[in-house]
Amino acid sequence: EVQLVESGGGLVQPGGSLRLSCAASGFTFSSYDMHWVRQATGKGLEWVSAIGTAGDPYYPGSVKGRFTISRENAKNSLYLQMNSLRAGDTAVYYCARGRDVMDVWGKGTTVTVSS
Amino acid sequence: DIQMTQSPSSLSASVGDRVTITCRASQGISNSLAWYQQKPGKAPKLLLYAASRLESGVPSRFSGSGSGTDYTLTISSLQPEDFATYYCQQYYSTPMYTFGQGTKLEIK
Fold it and tell me: What is the mean pLDDT of chain B?
């Protein structure tokens, strides 16, 4: 079964850091681009970052310079290092598979930025 | 950045109704558009890509059309399990992506 499982969410103070992980199974992880997408409570979806099969990272302006996406193909794992966190980063964070279209999603992990 | 605007933001309909949701891009996106369905507390699910191509396993009552800047998602005959929030997503400006704000489809 193709599956993505996120972990690492939690409560962090403003200005703090957190590292999210996404464990992939059931497919050849190294052959797929991967994404992080977030959703604040009651709000829409926001693309947060992407990484190509060669490890090339991409970010929107809202997180560029604060978030770092990476992957470890030997461990079938995707990561998101989040620094300088703000209240506005509070959301459920999903990892998703796909080059441009996201065809497999995890269930998400919740990040809360609050003092 | 390409902005995606969905309309309506919410919609009430009955089982068996035909429903259309519209997504407008701030510039032409050459059919580089996907549609997702999300139910409360669940992850989004891919329905269509390339504006009109049905993802494997998605019922044929879902269809997509459009060109240039304007795209539509149509559900031909609403089923109880279709009540959810729907999002469009452009990938014309890959590797930068944007979603529409969502359309909540509720039971009348």
Answer: 97
Can you tell me the distance from the alpha carbon of A46 to that of B87, in angstroms, rounded to the nearest whole number? 11
Q: In B1-108, which ranges are E strands?
A: 4-7, 10-13, 19-25, 33-38, 45-49, 53-54, 62-67, 70-75, 85-90, 98-99, 103-107
Q: Model confidence over B49-59: pLDDT tens digits?
A: 999 999 999 99
Q: Is residue A70 within 8 Å of residue A55, measured between CB atoms?
A: yes
Given a cut of 50, the residues of chain A with pLDDT beneath it are: none
Query: What is the spatial distance between Cα A58 and Cα B16, in angstroms, rounded to a whole number?
Result: 42
Contact B64/A at CB under 8 A = no
Residues across chain B: 108
Question: Minimal Cα–Cα distance from A80 to chain B, Å?
Answer: 17
